[in-house]
Amino acid sequence: KDYEDGALFSIKEIVNAEIFSDFLEMAEYLLNEGYKDPAAVITGGVLEQTLRKLCEKHNIPTDDNNQHKTADRINSDLYAKEAYSKLDLKQITAWLDLRNKAAHGKYNEYNKEQVESMLKGVKEFVHRFQ
Asked: Between 20 and 30 A from 37 (CA), which of 78, 106, 115, 117?
């Protein structure tokens, strides 16, 4: 009855949470070892996957005409569906920008402290919305 009422996590959600946690631990390790760029990319990947999982929960398609939606578009769609607040929308936009800079070699456009902040925020976001 509790499971049917949505009071318990599904096995899939528990496994996903463990995988995301492992990747975030990997990002934290890399960051602590001085590798801010791969840490930003990994953290951004966890964020994007979390956004896609949230779309599933809110019945929001993650593709248009067999093309994957961008993470920015998914972020906007989730906000429009009131999955989270405008503050979350703006913070996620900033994190996605940082991740894109790291993924496209714009390493001088952000610093270690910003990646640390992103990692901390994404951990909290994943915990809140898993």
From this structure: 78
Backbone dihedral region of 66: left (phi > 0), alpha (psi from -120 to 50 degrees) or beta? left
Model pTM? 0.82
**SS3 letters across the chain:** CCCCCCCCCCHHHHHHHHHHHHHHHHHHHHHHCCCHHHHHHHHHHHHHHHHHHHHHHCCCCCEECCEECCHHHHHHHHHHCCCCCHHHHHHHHHHHHHHHHHHCCCHHHCCHHHHHHHHHHHHHHHHHHC
- Give the Cα separation of 76 and 74 in Å (integer): 5
- Vertex 116: Cα angle to 108 and 13 (nearest 5): 120
Q: What is the pLDDT of residue 130?
A: 76
Say how far apart CA 123 and CA 104 lie, in whole Å: 23
